[in-house]
Amino acid sequence: xxxxxxxxxxxxxxxxxxxxxxxxxxxxxxxxxxxxxxxxxxxxxxxxxxxxxxxxxxxxxxxxxxxxxxxx
Length: 72
Known about the structure:
The chain is α+β, with helices and mostly antiparallel strands and 72 residues long. The chain contains 3 helices and 3 strands, in the order ααβββα.
């Protein structure tokens, strides 16, 4: 997990244990910094939104729904 995501999640009550590392790595690729603020490119809206703990979890669930793998 990137330091940015770790810092944001660490200051909240959220945990990312239900998400695998590949999902976390994938959404990290969408993190950008503008004017000293951190944003993430939303997978649904295709625009930059402020990166909050809630937004991290939201984007991970979207990723999980869209890119889930079918396994046994």
